[in-house]
Design brief:
- This protein is of the alpha+beta class and 430 residues long.
- It contains 19 helices and 14 strands.
- Strand 4 and strand 5 form a beta hairpin.
- The radius of gyration is 22 Å and the shape is globular.
- InterPro entries: Bact_solute-bd_prot1, SBP, TAT_signal.
- This is Extracellular solute-binding protein.
Length: 430
């Protein structure tokens, strides 16, 4: 029988093996070429891959249609893939010249695909377009680099937030949003009003752990990205808080879909990502609800955040006309991303947020300076998703389910993450 530690080590080895199979050690590390002005060359068709398979897909399709209508010399063909499939397929597809020219990648994936040579440096492109930190949410812009080179241009920012049923709150004598120092009392009031489990915490809600870890002063890794640190005292405090939500009955044991109970009235409070906003509007149109930044439970405010980033692939640079057309699409879509707010996310581009439409949107409350200054982004570490899956995500699941205590779960997870960090670093050093 394989031990638990042995199983975790095996998972790290398998992840490493799968990753090494897709590393292109000979891929040229050339920057994307910058071109002046609009594209006026022969017609080019761009392949555009993104992970927008939910309600955000139609919104991006609307933006692409508008671009195509405004650029008769360019046709953008959009393909929306499940994120897992996109990241598994993009390396061999680009290597064969049959992948995307432009893609959307999550911020924490840039390092992985930059070091594999799948995506190209954008420093010359952003300089030529005159793009700068002041044009975007500063924290999102800052995170788009790896080893001192830019690989992503942020489309948006999305952060964990609190949602609540205003009618259920009123029946319990409460008004939202909730604060960390009044959280326990609010949960007790909701339970007293007849809601047995007012706040469902599923074992998959690792974004809440990352948020609380930061609020308690901890971090997933050290500043160099070479040492896992989430098993610190801050991590134990964060995971203990999450497990306590189950032990105190706020959440049922083994909760799964935490959004559904808010919709059907069996819960009154939810911590989730902004994709919840269009989902509630579409699937629960009669639900009275509000949204606000995550409660401050620890000594400092803050919440998990990520960002969808535009990237250009190595494939796009094989032909100068395709490269120019890809640059035009990236620039135009970024400047005209106000429509993207319909997907529930916050446009990263300042001019897209500085509109009456965005200011009237639900997520505008998540786009304040205070929120932007307290975002906890995943770091740029090659192989970070494999490390997270076998590391802190597993620890969160075990602790919330009660199969391991928070400290023990995090100790095992941090050890596993450290071994994977060391293995990936050795792999990519070549």
């Amino acid at each position: 029988m394989i031990s638990r530690r042995g199983f975790l080590g095996l998972g790290a080895a398998l992840a490493l093996a799968g990753c090494s199979a897709s590393v292109d050690a000979d891929a040229p590390r050339v920057p994307a070429r910058a071109f002046p002005g609009e594209y006026t060359g022969p017609h080019r068709t761009l392949q555009f891959w993104n992970p927008f398979t939910g309600g955000d897909g139609p919104t991006m399709a609307k933006i692409v249609d508008a671009f195509n209508a405004a650029h008769p010399q360019i046709t953008v063909e959009m393909s929306s893939l499940n994120a897992v499939d996109l990241y598994a397929k993009v390396v061999p597809a680009v290597g064969a010249g049959q992948g995307p020219d432009v893609a959307i990648m999550h911020l924490d994936q840039l390092a992985t695909f930059a070091i594999r040579g799948t995506i190209v440096e954008l420093d010359d492109v952003v300089a030529g377009l005159g793009l700068a930190r002041a044009d975007f949410v500063p924290a999102a812009w800052d995170q788009g680099t790896y080893q001192g080179r830019r690989y992503g241009v942020p489309l948006d920012v999305f952060t964990l937030a609190q949602f609540w049923n205003t009618e259920a709150f009123a029946e319990a004598g409460l008004t939202g949003p909730l604060r960390g120092d009044t959280f326990a009392g609010a949960m007790a009031a909701l339970q007293a009003s007849g809601l047995q489990n007012p706040y469902w915490v599923p074992p998959t809600r690792w974004q809440l752990f990352v948020s609380l870890l930061g609020q308690f002063g901890g971090s997933l890794y050290d500043e160099s990205g070479t040492r896992a640190t989430f098993g610190s005292e801050a991590g134990v405090q964060a995971l203990t808080w999450m497990r306590a939500a189950v032990e105190r009955g706020y959440s049922p044991q083994g909760a799964s879909n935490d959004r559904a109970p808010l919709k059907n009235g069996s819960a009154a409070f939810l911590t989730d990502l902004p994709a919840t906003i269009p989902d509630l509007g579409k699937t629960a149109p009669d639900l009275p609800w509000e949204v606000a930044p995550l409660p401050q439970v620890g000594p400092r405010p803050g919440a998990f955040a990520n960002s969808h980033n535009f990237v250009l692939t190595r494939q796009s640079q094989a032909d100068p006309d395709t490269a120019h057309a890809a640059q035009v699409f990236l620039d135009w879509t970024s400047r005209n991303s106000a429509t993207w707010a319909e997907a529930g996310n916050t446009p990263a581009r300042g001019i897209a947020r500085d509109t009456d439409v965005f200011r009237a949107s639900r997520q505008a409350v998540l786009a304040t300076d205070e929120v932007f200054e307290n975002l906890f982004f995943p770091p740029q570490i090659p192989g970070s998703r494999d490390i997270a899956r076998n590391g802190y995500e597993r620890a969160v699941s075990e602790a919330v389910l009660g199969s391991a205590g928070p400290a023990d779960a995090l100790a095992f997870a941090q050890d596993t993450a450290q071994r994977q960090l060391d293995e990936f670093r050795q792999l990519y050093a070549a």
